[in-house]
Amino acid sequence: MPRIVVDVMPKPEILDPQGKAIVGALPRLGFTEFSGVRQGKRFELTVDGEVTEAVLAKAREAAETLLSNPVIEDVVNVEAIND
Predict the structure, then answer these.
(1) Residues 6+ apart with CB under 8 A from 42
(2) Which of 26, 44, 53, 63 is disulfide-compatible with 75, CB 3.0–4.6 A?
(3) How far is CA 45 from CA 1, 2, 4, 74, in A?
(4) Residues 6+ apart with CB under 8 A from 25
(5) 73 lies in which domain range?
(6) What is the mean pLDDT of each run of 10 residues along the chain (83 residues)?
(7) Which CATH number goes with the domain that contains 21?
(8) Which residues pair with 77 in a beta bridge?
(9) Cα 37 to Cα 13, 29, 46, 47, 68, distances in angstroms
(10) Could you tell me the pTM of the whole model?
């Protein structure tokens, strides 16, 4: 079944305490290549039938009104994936 993936991230000006905790732990675990982390959310919406432009538009609308908090988060990606 086709799916639509929606990625949501905190706005750049919003503090990300989870990301800060992760970036602090990385060097202690031997991962010294990374200097920053922002943690977001990923949603997978299953679609019955074909993913059309109209269905993608509805997914974007759902992402902006329900899946994200527009005050502190940005919807950064809405795309169809076919397995």
Answers:
(1) 5, 6, 7, 8
(2) 63
(3) 10, 9, 5, 18
(4) none
(5) 3-81
(6) 96 95 97 96 95 96 96 97 79
(7) 3.30.1280.10
(8) 7
(9) 14, 15, 28, 31, 19
(10) 0.87
